[in-house]
Amino acid sequence: MIALAIVAVVTAYAMPAYRAYAARGYRMDAMLTLYRAAHFIETARPARTAHGAADTLPAGLDRVPPQGPAVYRLHLQPADAGNGGYAIEAVPSAGGLMAGDRCGTFVLEATGRRANRVSGVSALEIEDCWRAR
């Protein structure tokens, strides 16, 4: 009975710490994939525009992680007045492990601006999210 109580106490402390650790890992994966996607767009854009092809992200750069259940989905946004030519968003998958995460959607613009969008808050800068905390 004492052993069961000890296991319950350890589990009560370990599970939230593990979930926070896993969330940081998924956020870091999303950030790295955003930078990889930006690199792809920057290097592929001259060849693609010469052939009249639209900018799209290839398989493997359109989700995090590349295999298994998607935690984030990446979307390429078109140019507007402020993003420098494009913006890439990593949106938490609905019903996924990061749905409802405090960092919300990660956004990387062509200008290098990094931001997060959280439901109900417009263009909120959350630097701790980009520091993988």
UniProtKB/TrEMBL annotation:
Pfam families: ComP_DUS. InterPro entries: PilE-like (IPR031982), Pilin-like (IPR045584). It comes from the Bacteria. SUPFAM superfamilies: Pili subunits (SSF54523). Gene3D superfamilies: Glycoprotein, Type 4 Pilin. GO terms for biological process: type IV pilus assembly. This is Type IV pilus assembly protein PilE.
